[in-house]
Each structure stands twice: as structure tokens, then as C-alpha cells.
Design goal:
Largest interface: A-B, 24 and 22 residues
Strand content of chain A: over 45%
Shape of chain A: globular
Helix content of chain A: under 10%
Order of helices and strands of chain B: EEEEEEEEEEE
Largest sheet of chain B: 7 strands, mixed
Order of helices and strands of chain A: EEEEEEEEEEE
Oligomer: heterodimer
Structural class of chain A: mainly beta
Radius of gyration of chain A: 13 Å
Structural class of chain B: mainly beta
Number of strands of chain B: 11
Largest sheet of chain A: 7 strands, mixed
Shape of chain B: globular
Distance between the termini of chain B: 40 Å
Distance between the termini of chain A: 36 Å
Radius of gyration of chain B: 14 Å
Strand content of chain B: over 45%
Chain lengths: 107, 125
């Protein structure tokens, strides 16, 4: 199975901050990497697919980059509604696997 | 609008089975791939399997092989996930999810774009 490791597991930030979350795969997954946002009590929401493609309706302050084993999700200017947990997920092969999540908290 | 509505919360005893339904609307259910993903309290998301709603083909995570069955009823635009031999570790929120794809760049990239509202399954004696 492909292991997905996210760092940090949590971070504290303020509105307006630039936030970067890292996801590493245990083997190369090309660009088969998706990012999701999850708020408490809600289902996850797709933000980014294919490592860097923005899902329709998602604000442009979210961006993704990377390929192979190392990927990054960046929020250019954190907004109040962005405090949530973020997950990466590989779609390179089954079983599909998710990272452990990064919780973005208020500083 | 595109929507997945799941059945309500369940409480089961260890060893029992649970069957969760997921009714789709707003898109062509019969030409979709539907996944089931679960999330135990405080844990990461965990993929269980998928079904091609057109031909009924399924693929399961090895972790759940033999315990999970995913089916669909195309005329009702509904997918089902049945998990047997329940144990306390199966306590989780179970989600059905639609798969979409982008094949515009030569390669096809698959992602989960529409999520159900989640069904909480509690396993307790």
C-alpha cells in the first residue's frame, strides 16, 4: 500500500497568513494527488485534484504543487472559513490512501 | 443539484451486520463510480471500496475483503454498503462518494468530488 504522510499534523496561524502543508508519498505517484478540506461534523470537500488543478468553485487562494513523492498545499492568505483539517489522498493505485491530516487552528 | 443522501445512524452489536444506503440525485447515477470511505473518531479517512454503477463491478480494500459488499440498485439511483462481522473498531462515520475524472491532458486523473452526508455506525455491546 502507498503510505501518505502529512506535515505538520497541526499548525496555528492568523487570518492573512500564508500557510503551507506538505504531503509525502511512500513511492512515486506522479501527479495522482488530491487535497480535501474537512470541517468538524461535515464531509470532506475537494479542493485540488491532479496535484495542482483547482476544483470549480474553490477560491484561488488555494493552490497545489508537486509531483512524484512530494506535494504542497498552499493557502496564500488564510481566511476565517479556512480553519479546518486538510487531507491529501493518492489516486495512483488501490487501495486509495489518505494522509493523516493537518489541522489548521487559530493562533 | 448534485446530491448524495445517506441513511440514518445505526447502532449495532458486535458480530452483527449493517447496510448503509446512498441515494443519488442530480447526475447520471448509472454511469458513475461510487466509493465508500469511512472515518473512525479522530482518525484519518479510510477507503473501503468502489462500485461501477453501470456494470456492477466492484473493487474492495484488502483490509475489508470478505466483510464488505457494495451493491447498487440503478433504477433507484441508490448504492449500498454492507459490512458484516462488526467489531468496536468499525465504529465510524461512513461516507459514499462520487468519483469524477479529468482526462483532458492525456492522462486520466480521478478524484472524489461529491460526498454524502455521512452515516454514523456505532458498534457497542
Amino acid at each position: 500500500d502507498i503510505q501518505m504522510t502529512q506535515s505538520p499534523s497541526s499548525l496555528s496561524a492568523s487570518v492573512g497568513d500564508r500557510v503551507t502543508i506538505i504531503c509525502r508519498a511512500s513511492q512515486s505517484i506522479n501527479s495522482y494527488l488530491n487535497w480535501y478540506q474537512q470541517k468538524p461534523g461535515e464531509a470532506p470537500k475537494l479542493l485540488i485534484y491532479a496535484a495542482s488543478s483547482l476544483q470549480g468553485g474553490v477560491p484561488s487562494r488555494f493552490s497545489g504543487s508537486g509531483s512524484g513523492t512530494d506535494f504542497t498545499l498552499t493557502i496564500s492568505s488564510l481566511q476565517p472559513e479556512d480553519f479546518a483539517t486538510y487531507y491529501c489522498q493518492q489516486s495512483y493505485g488501490t487501495p486509495l490512501t489518505f494522509g493523516g491530516g493537518t489541522k489548521v487552528e487559530v493562533k | 443539484q448534485v446530491q448524495l443522501v445517506q441513511s440514518g445512524a445505526e447502532v449495532k452489536k458486535p458480530g452483527a451486520s449493517v447496510k448503509v444506503s446512498c441515494k443519488a440525485s442530480g447526475f447520471s447515477f448509472s454511469s458513475s463510480v461510487m466509493h465508500w470511505v469511512r472515518q473512525a473518531p479522530g482518525q484519518r479517512l479510510e477507503w473501503m471500496g468502489w462500485i461501477n454503477t453501470g456494470n456492477g463491478n466492484t473493487k474492495y480494500s484488502q483490509k475489508f475483503q470478505g466483510r464488505v459488499t457494495i451493491t447498487r440498485e440503478a433504477t433507484a439511483s441508490t448504492a449500498y454498503m454492507e459490512l458484516s462481522g462488526l467489531r468496536s473498531e468499525d465504529t465510524a462515520v461512513y461516507y459514499c462518494v462520487r468519483q469524477d475524472s479529468d482526462c483532458s491532458g492525456g492522462s486520466c486523473y480521478y478524484y472524489m468530488d461529491v460526498w454524502g452526508n455521512g452515516t454514523t455506525v456505532t458498534v457497542s455491546s
